[in-house]
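It is worth pausing here to work through a concrete case rather than discussing structure prediction in the abstract. The textbook approach is simple: state the sequence, then state the predicted structure, then interpret. We follow exactly that order.
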Amino acid sequence: MIENETDYEVPVETEEAPESTPDYVKITLDSNVTPLEMRYSQINSCSKKAPIAYRTFTYINSVIEGVIPPEKYAYAADETDRGIKLAKWNISAAGTALKSFKEAGRHIEFLTVRVSPGIVREVDVYSFLKNLLSECGIEEPEKICLEFPRTVLYEDTEKVRSCLLAMKLLKIKSMLAGCGDRDCPFAPLFSLPFDFLLVSPAITQLTDNRNKAESAEALLMFLKSLKCEFIADGLQNDDQIIALYRADAYGYIPDADYIGRVEHGSPRMPLDEALPQREEVEDF
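Step two, the predicted structure:
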């Protein structure tokens, strides 16, 4: 029996404070690792050993997921407003990289920059790009080449055409990636004035195939007849380089499994590896 109720304290249940969610952005910045990083694949002339341009890839550095290549996020981002934001970052980063190439004494033709196909329907392309060039201080827009994924061919053709014409007014180049992939239609190319077509390895790697080389070369001749240049992706040996030279390709991107006598940098190199690459002009 309790003699004095004031001597007895009823325990009070208290709720534990929820653990706060870690600020992963802050953690990433504190680690001195940039959340977004641009990497480079050289585009070589088929007749020379030197790179004449670079294709860029934007990687995400995440403290949760690690290093994420564009293949794992780009198409999902294209369906949201993040696709437009990534396009802006990509163009800005390319503008900064162009200044670095110039300071290093490099004379490259252009850098490709991937953009979401959503820009053809979600923004006023001319104003969007004109303002962005000004904000980023890009004085040579002709050295920026916007790379569209093949999914842009499923957008309204007239809107895509208007987008490409607006880019021409601003002297910005355009490129369609994945040309020749299984799900890439060809009919829209008759009315879309791309400056470059990036031909899929599925086609370019057939150019030294005894049974299919003639068909592959015929397709390349068709692409050339569209009054645009084409770049061959994923070349694996010197015979393919020679075949693409004969087909009058603008250039080629070597495959990671390339075996031959041409020296290439790593497939997706950081800027500090791309800057010192050789530019001596030598016959292949």
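Step three, interpretation. The CA atoms of residues 21 and 27 lie 12 Å apart. The mean pLDDT is 89.
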